[in-house]
Amino acid sequence: MSRLSPGSTPMVEYVETRQTWTMVTPARRAPAPASGEVQRSSTHAVNGADELRFRAQQTRIERCMSVFDVATAVKCDAKQISDFERGDGLLRDDVEKRLRTLLRL
User: Fold this and answer.
1) Closest CA to 72 of 60, 59, 62
2) Which residues contact 34 (CB under 8 A, 6 or more apart)?
3) Does the model's pTM come out above 0.85?
4) How does residue 97 score in pLDDT terms, banded at 50, 70 and 90?
5) Who's near 81: CB < 8 A, 6+ residues apart?
6) Does domain 44-103 have CATH number 1.20.1410?
7) Domain boundaries, the chain
């Protein structure tokens, strides 16, 4: 912790920042059926998309590829890839297929 002598001013100016936080409530999941059968539901599809996002981003980073490199290879906009990895958007089916082929997912 640095101490300033009386009357001196700090070298860095303080900039006030205000942030807003929103708490997300996780979706409830139905208990698994006793028979051990797998039920397909809309939450299953979302979890599959989330897993694809994670695996795509992880593989891209492991291969030292930028978002721009992937976007160029799958013939789409870099913002689409970025939004997809962040979970803010979905890819068209043809782009997703090219992404899976490129990253061997």
Assistant:
1) 60
2) none
3) no
4) very high
5) 67, 70, 71, 74, 91, 99
6) no
7) 44-103
